[in-house]
Design brief:
Layout lengths: L2 H11 L4 E7 L6 H13 L5 E7 L6 H11 L3 E6 L5 H11 L4 E4 L11 H9 L4 E7 L6 H18 L7 E8 H8 L8 H8 L3 E7 L12 H15 L2 H29 L7 H34 L6 E5 L5
Parallel strand pairs: 1-2, 1-4, 2-3, 5-7
Antiparallel strand pairs: 3-8, 4-6, 5-6
Helix pairs in contact: 6-9, 10-11
Length: 324
């Protein structure tokens, strides 16, 4: 075996200073380009590092590409999940395997510029336990993406009573202390952005302009975005239940007022007409009732899943010297 490769492998086996965790789903065309740019960015820094690529049950050749680059780049570690668990679960799988004193999470589609790594690491060395990034969309970003993203963060801040500025993402650096506290959360359906905000460690925010995807399309369909938004709000807020109580009280008052109107009309001798309005009001009340039952059922469903203690992810296969 090549002595150079053995030496590199021994270096990789040692605990790295920086861990970079990257969830990937159907990113076969981006893997090699991403690894090259990260390698170039980290070559300018005097830090040992590991690059953990997590294949989240891809349907294309993503895992094959990860295996290929791990053979030529000893700092690359590959984790293959048994199926598609979702972005947050894949990210959590990588964070669990990270060994560095600081851990950086980012996407593998090159919208998070690897050249930003130096700025994140420098802010950490200056004392920040958490280094978050705030995304500025470029001119090619659709108005729909901008509007829905901004609306979600405002809604999340209102519903959870925990401020989260628009533009924040999972492109961040966590100090080992902050990461250990994050990993102590025993959530099956964890919302990492909310957890990091909740920890409230000293944080530095760095702005960046999101690049265009090098290859492929966004994996976040409208339905996926809705599920992601719902998961984040339910994980950090009971306000939907409180709003349900207020809505129930409001409709009860409306029903009582309508009943008083009927009684008054009966006393003065007027014939009460309008079965359509009565049925309409009854339908409204039943609609509100079913909405409240749906909200309650959603919370109960989350409790049911949590009590089952199912793992958030299952690692089916690993490659790379760092995990041996």
């Amino acid at each position: 075996m090549d002595r150079t490769f053995i030496a590199d492998s021994l270096i990789t086996c040692r605990k790295p200073t920086i861990s970079i965790v990257v969830p990937m789903y159907n990113e076969a065309l981006n893997v090699s380009h991403f690894v090259d740019r990260v390698s170039q960015a980290m070559a300018r820094l005097q830090h040992s590092y590991e690059l953990i690529l997590v294949d989240d049950g891809s349907a294309d050749a993503t895992w094959a590409r990860i295996e290929e680059v791990s053979m030529t780049a000893p700092q690359v570690v590959g984790l293959k999940l048994s199926r598609n668990f979702g972005h947050q679960a894949a990210l959590l799988a990588g964070l669990n395997s990270a060994r560095g004193d600081a851990v950086i999470s980012m996407d593998g589609d090159l919208q998070h510029p690897p050249e930003m790594l130096q700025s994140l690491i420098q802010a950490w060395q200056d004392g920040a336990a958490v280094v978050s990034t705030r995304r500025t969309y470029n001119q090619n970003t659709s108005w729909f993406k901008k509007v829905t993203s901004s609306t979600y963060y405002r809604l999340f801040s209102f519903m959870s009573e925990m401020e989260m500025e628009p533009g924040h993402s999972d492109f961040r650096l966590l100090d080992r202390r902050a990461l250990d506290h994050l990993l102590s959360f025993n959530h099956t359906d964890i919302f990492l952005r909310g957890v990091v905000n909740w920890l409230d460690y000293p944080t530095t925010v760095i702005d960046f302009v999101a690049d265009d995807r090098l290859h492929g399309q966004s994996k976040f369909s409208f339905n996926r975005m809705l599920r992601f938004a719902r998961s984040g709000i339910l994980a950090f807020s009971t306000k939907p239940l409180q709003l349900g109580i207020k809505l129930g009280l409001g409709t009860s008052m409306l029903s009582f007022a309508y009943l008083m109107y009927i009684v008054v009309q009966y006393i003065v001798g007027n014939t009460v007409e309008g079965w359509a309005s009565t049925l309409g009001l009854v339908s409204l009340l039943f609609g509100v009732l079913f909405i409240l039952l749906g909200v309650i059922g959603t919370y109960i469903g989350r409790i049911y899943v949590l009590l089952q203690r199912r793992p958030a992810f299952i690692v089916h296969h690993r490659v790379g010297v760092s995990v041996e």
